[in-house]
């Protein structure tokens, strides 16, 4: 096989394997360096020049002229060197041209093995680069194999892995089914690229809405946050950057057409789309949809919220396995606790009516004026003021203070 035939055969095989012609030169170069290394022990002193377009292949071996050859791959005898270049002397560098045909039948066998290995490596590299650049995209593939921990999905010759943890729990898969998922991650491992796809990831839901709602793709509507219990319920906060467009209405679509397409893809997963609000009470109330709380008691410092529901609404507010409550908490950033109205009223002490000092009939007018001069106008203020502070009031001594306390106690006991 001459050089041109060799290069052409490589090109034909590469074309069948969908390998770029520009990479064939590198493959051929590596092939001959491998053959040289096997034959001479080293290829460091060799140069392989390949021109695919012209079908040219040249192999040069840099040697040193010596009197007696000890290392064949790096030395040439003065006698042999002078046959080619009469002016050669001992110690001179000599460039020997190697004919590819000199490798004989071994070339063909090694070439096939080497080419197959190289092409597999190139295919793995191309697959990795292709899907690495597609992370975050939705793909459609065919299920080929179903295992305990993974479902193997194929797109043309590429194998993708759908772990059970990335599946929607209530879905059932069969060989031959077509499946849609998002490319979650791509990692190169020793046996090739490991392409992980997902149907449970929040980004899969976001991408489905982007496909169904043009306003999202155009940037008019923005999905700000998503939280999911895959296959059960999802909650989404959306905001419109155009006052003329209702974000929730656009996501739901005419008669629910847009959101129903997403729900069908997710095997019936319920989706609550809510408008963004900077007011925690409004956002939390919306996040608890479909239930409507009667009251919300919010502590912004501790990010805690107590939601009170009608007794018959509590199940809807909490949701199965606390899904609705947990999703609302995750969506808003507040720890939300749900309680029935009857339980809240039973466990919450009624607020005592405020009692003013002037209402206490057992106190004399002078006592009332004296306390009022010290800004003590209600019973709570009196109780919350220390004895030392009370004695600082002008005209109020310890004997008078004891008398006032006794009179207040008598009033409370007889009320």
Properties at a glance:
415 residues; alpha+beta; 5-stranded antiparallel beta sheet; 15 strands
Radius of gyration, CA atoms, in whole angstroms = 42 Å
> Helical percent range?
25-40%
**Main beta-sheet strand count, sense and barrel state:** 5 strands, antiparallel
Structural class: alpha+beta
How are the strands of the largest sheet arranged?
Answer: 7-6-5-8-9
Strand content: 25-35%
Shape: elongated
Q: What's the overall average pLDDT, rounded?
A: 88
The count of DSSP E runs of length 2 or more, i.e. the number of strands, is 15
- Give the number of helices: 16
Distance between the termini: 119 Å
- Unreliable segments (pLDDT under 50, ≥5 consecutive)? none
Structural write-up:
There is one protein chain. A hairpin with a 4-residue loop joins strand 1 and strand 2. The protein is built from 16 helices and 15 strands. The radius of gyration is 42 Å and the shape is elongated. The protein has helices at 3-16, 24-40, 78-84, 105-132, 202-212, 214-217, 247-252, 257-265, 280-287, 314-318, 323-332, 341-347, 365-373, 379-383, 387-390, 398-414, and strands at 46-51, 56-66, 75-77, 93-98, 138-146, 150-155, 158-163, 178-189, 192-198, 221-229, 233-240, 270-275, 295-299, 304-309, 335-340. The strands form four sheets. It has a five-stranded antiparallel β-sheet. Strands 1, 2, 3 and 4 form a four-stranded mixed β-sheet that branches. The N and C termini lie far apart (119 Å). The longest helix has 28 residues, at 105-132. By secondary structure, the chain is α+β, with helices and mostly antiparallel strands. The model has no long low-confidence stretch (mean pLDDT 88). Helix 2 crosses helix 4 (105-132).
